[in-house]
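USER: I would love a firmer grasp of how sequence relates to backbone shape in proteins. This is the protein in question:
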Amino acid sequence: MNVYKGVEIPEFIEYEKPIFVNNRGFRTKKTNNYFDLSFREASNLPKENGLITSKDIVCFVNCPVCGKADNQQLFLKWGFKISECNRCDHTFVENQMIQSALDKLYVESDVDKQFQIRKKQDEGLSKYWILLYSKYLQLLRNKKINNLSLLDVGAGGGDFIELCNEMENYKLHAMEFSSNSADFLASIVGPSNLYKKEISNSDFKGKKFGVITIWGVLEHINNPIKELQKCKEILDSEGRIVVLIPNLYSRAFKILGLMVPTLNPRSHVNFYTKKSMGILCNEVGLEIEEYYQELPVIDLMYDYIDYNEALVEEILNKNESYYSVYIIRHKN
């Protein structure tokens, strides 16, 4: 059994089984501060009748997956309008922050600095992500992908890249906007393998990757078709893309409503269902090979549930876990 940063990593056999750790203490002071900062940043944006409309901050969009304007408003949060597409079931922020405003947030925002610090300093949270990353790295290893070049999109504080560097034999590459972790990432992947622009505007100089990982990033991207199309272009013919995204229609949302942490419309602009993710992949010539669920019960739910194995099984059967994980490949 391997050990990484004091965490024993088992041999995962049943990949359908989510990673379980005691997450009752995840909602620490640091975590609450992260969401308080998000709320304050969004609250400071100018609004008209409760809605953010300034063209210097937002643009109103059709469905980012199917492009249709046939949608229905679900609710407002922090001045952002969340709507559901009647054609493909995709849920999205209709008045999305423009890319320049988003880029500025990711480079300068105290919120994102706090998130990176929180993942590194919270022992329970760090253990959870170490086990989750290890599970999918083992799954990929079993697929025997010959091309061992790996690109981590939205590498953040570098936790996944650091683990890969210690536990795997991949030739590592990372894409990350924020300057906060640039030196650390470059120390692992090398300066020439660190990309500081979005995927669609990065020059990979003909490189093909056997693995592309997108951990909690796709929900932030305004134009998922454009970015996923570039992923397809740089993905080796036998390669895989791993996408982890929050599931808006989780049991956590049913219980907590607008207070669920997934709903951070200042930066989470797209909320994918299995249907809309399938349509998105098909649009760019990819397909979903496998689907997994993670984190069926989040820390904030415990006060409102009778936690037991039957409840967890029910959540899994109804696809109501907090995270969805997709293994994606070229369309056959």
